[in-house]
Amino acid sequence: MGDAIDDMAIASAAMLPEIRDAAETGAGLVSLWPLTDADRLANDAKYAENLRMRITRVLAGIMTGEEITVADAEYVVDGAVMLPGRPERVVRALLAANDAYDAMSDYGGTGDVAAVMRGAGMLGVDWGDGLVRAVSAMLDVAETTLRGPQVALPEASDDGETIAQRLAAVAVACDALLGTVADASDDVSVRPCLPVVPYVNGLCERLAIPGLFIDAEGLMALVKAHADPGEDVRSSDAVARLLAADAKTEWARHREAVLWDPEEAKRQAQADDEGRRRRELDDRLGGK
After folding, report:
1. Residues 95, 101, 105: CA angle, nearest 5 degrees
2. Is the model's pTM score more than 0.85?
């Protein structure tokens, strides 16, 4: 199993330069709240829907072993229960992924670990009775530990130190879940670890930091980092470095999405087009 979910593991991860760098990016995002501008509120809602689509697309792709199109994932997020012309297994996987996403979101709001287990069941992971009990016990420990004053503050904060502690806690819990599953499963693929993707996002909500996105390659990297963190390196620190990179990228993307101004984007596109035309004209004139 991975490092224990305790203050020492969290403190170690929180001191990593990658975690602290990501936390500053997160602070820049959280500082925008509370959102009051109608355009920013709409942008944030659109971002949230897009994040859901991206996560459920990853889940369905791993479940089926097939490439899931953006259009298919969007249709199901929008409420479609049938996709004419598409394989039934793809539709079932997308529907299950969306149900699991909802279950993990319930966990983010309530801390009820049964919601995580329901989500895992919806994803169809092949966990035997022993592993189900082990995962449930690990989640109970995580929930108890993360209620402590170090990380489980009730409201969002744009303080970089606070965000670093909370992101570190997510990483330590993620590592513990990876370890629990890996230690009890004979399947060396990422399939048994599939619930890690929505669990991490739900735990971010639980700890009042913005959500993360982990793609299939990212999940495989996390599994490998836990299994082989390097000599004299905590597995939770190795996992934290990867999650920090995901966090920094996603939080920068989220902030850009919230601040997106269609009029400014249009003006910038026009300026870029004008600049391109001028360069092309200069090239033609210079060639004469």
Report:
1. 150
2. yes
